[in-house]
Amino acid sequence: MSTAPASPSARLLWLDALRVLAGVSIICMHASAAPDGSPFSDATPAGRALPVLLQTLFYMARTELFLVISLFLLAMSLHRRPRGYGAVIAEQAQRLLVPFVFWVAVYVCVNLALGYHLGWGHYLLRALTSQAEIWIGYLLLGDVKQHMHFLPTLFALVLAFPLYRMAVARPALGLVLIPLLILKRQLNMAVWGGIEDPVATQYLLRAIRIATYTGYGLVGAAFYGIFLRVGAGGEGGSWDRARSARLQRAVLTSLGLLALACLWIKFGQAMAVIQSGTWSRNYPNADSAHLLMPVALFGLVMLAPLRWPGWIGRLAPYSFGIFLVHPMLLDLFRLIAEGRIMTPSLYVLTNIGFAVAGSYALALALSRVPALSWTIGLGPLPWARRRAGTRPLAAPSA
């Protein structure tokens, strides 16, 4: 296989579109809440309508979409370049856990700086220097900042990759996600109702999430199996055109109906949130709709016969970076704007613009610094760069 960089036309632009959508949606989802995390509870229903509807819209592409994308790419990588279990785990540990530890350290510093600015930094510093469980939580649960749990969760899911590979040959195994999500809900309710220790509760809930989210690994591999047979948008698959078209129509129809059902539930919940001023997390079937919508979205984008613009491929490599840096942009905006922008809709729209533009600018800046580009997945790790620097220069392989 050639090691030359892929041209924009050779890229899977539909997958790039999903990566951009996932990264931007995570930012906008966080930016569409009030500074205290509420749906602008103090505003009138009309005043919070736009922020809640935007939150609902962007909540369609949750971190579960990133999981499906990542595990789809892992299935593709292993199909094109088979490796042993140890090699895969070592590779993924370097790609996921090393940047994760770096960003944990960064966000500890950010939290301390924010705390000292707001008057509670000395309490956080005292806790950091006296309570080991805080650091354990940062490293195992990823609770140092919003959605930093994604990296240790994804790495834990990668450990089960031999299981997912069965779904490449048998895509129907992706349906196992449904009973696993039902099991997740039942186990979560048992933990919430039966465990009083809040620390133990958090670790048990995370263990349940990882065990049941193996279903997303099966889904990612199942979609890769369908991709091999049908191709993207019904083009380029290994099956003959008639057989491929039948599978494409069947999967598109099923996922389209799933998406419509999820949207009906999600916007019903949004109406309840607008009226009540609370998140209405117990709205019937809302949790299932949130967890299944990313699956429907991935499959629809993969199989729909759409033509994506080439610039999507230029934005996609920064998706991991904007995911990692966006919390500090949200914190900065909160410091600048809280109490100054009183209209919920204006606050949210300004926050979204600032956070998306700032996150891309910061990710681009990091990518241009060789010593830091690895922190957002766009360069070799420092020790790999040093080893490469001690070797004689060779012509690039073709």
TrEMBL record:
Main location: membrane
Protein name per the record: Surface polysaccharide O-acyltransferase-like enzyme
Spans through the membrane: 12-32, 52-75, 96-117, 148-167, 173-195, 207-227, 247-267, 288-309, 315-333, 345-366
A UniProt-annotated Pfam family: Acyl_transf_3
Localization of this protein: Cell membrane
Topology versus the membrane: Multi-pass membrane protein
Record flagged with keyword Transmembrane: yes
A GO CC term attached to the entry: plasma membrane
GO biological process: one example: enterobacterial common antigen biosynthetic process
Boundaries of every Acyltransferase domain copy: 13-363
Alphabetic keyword roster: Acyltransferase, Cell membrane, Membrane, Transferase, Transmembrane, Transmembrane helix
GO molecular function: O-acetyltransferase activity
Protein family according to the UniProt entry: Belongs to the acyltransferase 3 family.
